[in-house]
Amino acid sequence: MLQVGLQHFLIVSSILFALGIYGIVTRKNAIMVLMGIELMLNSANINFVAFARYGNFGLHGQIYALFVIILAAAEAAIALAIVLNLYKTFAKINVDEVNNLKE
After folding, report:
1. pTM of this prediction?
2. Domain 6-91 is of which CATH architecture?
């Protein structure tokens, strides 16, 4: 029978991280870029929990993962406010087309 080990968690985490990087690099929509960032944060959470489980670190990995979840929630709230303000101001949310914020 197949036992799920640390390598399985690391493989899933690296796939999620790669998908997050791909989403950030290839997408022009600000919401898709934010979803890529969330995928990257979730892959870090999987690593924290997996290393805590298989490395005998106790609850430290879960505590770090909880902090990352709180950080991701705050980032999502602030980013949503920024995206809504961009849409209200420019009527578009493409990252490449909204470079007038400097002025």
Report:
1. 0.80
2. Orthogonal Bundle (1.10)
